[in-house]
Amino acid sequence: MRPLLVPLHRWFGIATALFLFVAGLTGAVIAWDHELDAMLNPSFFHARTDGPPLPSLEVARRIEADDPRLQVTYLPLAAEPGHTLQVMVWPRVDPHTQQPYKLDFNQLAVDPATGAIQGRREWGAVSLARLNLIPFLYKLHYTLHLPFTRGVDVGTWLMGIVGIVWIFDSMIALALSFPNFNAWRKSFVFRVKRGGYPLTFDLHRSGGVWIWGLLLMMAVTSVSMNLANEVVRPIVSRLSPLTATPFSDSTLAGTPHPGKANLSRERILDDARRIAEEKHLSAPPGALFYATTLHTYGVGFFTAGNDHGDGPLGNAWLYLNAQTGRPVGETIPGEGSAGDIFMQAQFPLHSGRIAGLGGRIVISALGLAVAVLSVTGLMIWLKKLAARRRKIRAPRKAPRTAQAGKQTAERAEPANRTHHAERVEPTATPR
Question: What transmembrane ranges does the database entry give (predicted)?
Fold first, then answer.
């Protein structure tokens, strides 16, 4: 098997090295996305005025009244003390052109006490400006900022496929690291004193062995993040039933009825509170979003500032039809089948938030380790490639060297005979 596994590991590694290098470095940074973003852009995150906050639903109404071109699609229902509301918006359709209005922003920072807009930005824009840096890195992490092509999210698919290749390559790497029982100790050793190529090789092999379980977990969860509906859910559903949501089953999505408007946010929120009481959800409503293409509202339940879902399995969400208010799905941490809980754990595992602050530290360090493994793997391949090229050139030089030696010997032969004759002549002549 080894003659087959070695080239597979080599080419899998070469094919994914650059992508994993970028994903590793950006992942190490975005493990702290909220904190870094707030540090870089205090005016976007910290409210300018003190005072009792306005109701978030009133803030949304004012935003839409001041700019009829847009609609609020994500609304935090409470903000941390001293922080702005981070509101997401989406362009409405221009009735004259039947095309969406052109907006150069999709996120607003709103002072919760006054409803004043403190800042605007396009979250995920290709920009290294301070205001856009962290969202740029976040989106680079999972899409490489590649565009949609014929309705296909190329970047998301590409990074998902890289994750699949990474899973198989992790299995191959483990098999190659332990070729036999007697060699297992070598796979855990770092030859620090020797340095150079031996240390580079050990950083790649032994480094990968020490954290192999974490690397495999990261590879699996990366596929779940990018290709959940396309790959992971169909596989998991064969082992355990999964509860459908509008995001996994389009038949549950709302169907717009001509002439019938969506329910108000107030009505949706009241319905969601009633359902939450029936399901004994203890956390208050923390955010409300509207999925325009699915005609579905989602209401999340968490305290202010916990929108990232710190904790074992994230936050609870209820999904309701935008025009009828009918429940069309839910995600409640720890509830459902084994498959449901597995899917709930994917983002907390991938982000490290499943273990709180310590988990995020581990994930940040793991991102750096992935980048190191990618670089050392390429270094090893380049060194072996140079050695193979020297080996290929060596036979071509050998005949030339042998021919040159033969010609030199032939030219030297007469002189050798003369020299030999001069040495033996005196003894051959009688005195």
Answer: 12-32, 157-178, 209-228, 361-382
- For residue 429, the model assigns a pLDDT of 36
**Model confidence over 228-259: pLDDT tens digits?**
999 999 999 999 999 999 999 988 887 777 66
Ranges of H-type helices in 249-355: 265-278, 338-344, 346-351
DSSP 3-state of 417: helix
Residue 74 in tokens: 């994500």
Task: State the residue for tokens 């970028």.
Answer: 22
Count the helices and strands in the chain (H runs, E runs). Answer: 13, 10
State the amino acid at position 42 in one-letter form: P
- How many C-beta atoms surround the C-beta of residue 77 within 10 A? 22
Pairing type for strands 85-91 and 296-301 reads unpaired
Q: Which residues contact 307 (CB under 8 A, 6 or more apart)?
A: 76, 286, 287, 300, 315
What is the model's pLDDT at position 398?
54
Q: Which residues contact 290 (CB under 8 A, 6 or more apart)?
A: 71, 72, 73, 74, 262, 296, 297, 298, 322
- Note the pLDDT tens digit of each residue in 24-79: 999 999 999 999 999 999 999 999 999 899 999 999 999 999 999 999 999 999 99
The whole-angstrom separation of Cα 404 and Cα 78 is 87
> Mapping DSSP to helix (H, G, I), strand (E, B) and coil, where does residue 232 land?
helix
Give the separation between CA 232 and CA 225, rounded to whole angstroms: 9
d(CA 223, CA 227): 5
Dist CA 76 CA 112 (whole Å): 10
Taking alpha carbons only, the member of 356, 276, 332 closest to residue 77 is 276
Distance (Å, whole) CA 161 – CA 178? 27
